[in-house]
Amino acid sequence: MARVFPQAAISSPYMSTERETFTVWMKSLVYQTNGLTVYNSNGEITYRVENYDKCSNEVHIMDLHGNILFTIRKKKLWLFGSWYVYRECGSFTSTEEVKPCARIKRSSIRDGDWEVRDDTNEVFWILRFDPKFAFQIIDIHGNIIAQVKPKQSSNGITLGEDVLTLEVKPRVDHSLVVTLVTIDGEVKQLRDFEEEEVAVGDEIAIEI
Question: Is 156 left (phi over 0), alpha (psi -120 to 50) or beta?
Fold first, then answer.
């Protein structure tokens, strides 16, 4: 069975023989809609997400023209759940009819890490959070596959929490990397929502 994250011959428009750098804006192009927009090094939009929020159970990763590349479904509501990734194949009308190509869940080895498993249950990538980056993606040998960090101007000024730089090594499917970036956004949204709920509960307890 082919690997979900192939690193062999280039046969996809979503891979390159050279390292690629993208700008990720954690906002949707659609007014008042949650999502993210990804630009390539030429300033062209390559990927977009416009349909996820705190209550969404399904997220679609699309290209510029709105074609769905991947669908993410949450198995459970909170941070302790899993995310299932389905590759768009064009022949099914529901992700319930096909098996996920990858599953992402909390690592049982190191706190703060996330395991990525393919449909044979093989662990091959890990989302590792690091203070210097939003996160890094490494393979089972510890090699960095991709990394996300705050984007800076030519003068070294950070452009804001919502503007990130995504670097992807050669021969890696960057559309799937963007899918993992989207899941990272989901995790952070859920964490913030959970903290807000706790804060509200504390305020109520104090008033009582």
Answer: left
Of the two residues 77 and 87, the one the predictor is more confident about is 87
How much of the chain is helix, strand and coil, in % rounded to 5? Answer: 20, 35, 45
Q: Where are the extended beta strands (E) located within the chain?
A: 20-25, 36-39, 45-49, 58-63, 68-74, 83-87, 102-106, 113-118, 123-130, 133-139, 144-150, 163-168
Tell me: the pLDDT tens digits for 40-84? 999 999 999 876 455 667 888 999 888 999 998 887 655 556 889
Distance CA(192)–CA(198), nearest Å, equals 10
Which distant-in-sequence residues (6+ apart) come within 8 Å of 149 by Cβ? 132, 133, 134, 164, 165, 167
Segment 100-138, tens digit of pLDDT: 888 888 887 777 788 888 877 777 777 777 666 678 888
Q: How many residues can be counted in the chain?
A: 208
Tokens of 178: 């963007």
CA atoms within a 13 Å half-sphere pointing along the CA-CB vector of 34: 13
* Cα 48 from Cα 141, distance rounded (Å): 31
Question: What's the pTM value of the predicted model, to 2 decimals?
Answer: 0.78
Q: Provide φ and ψ at 162, rounded to 5°.
A: -90, 0
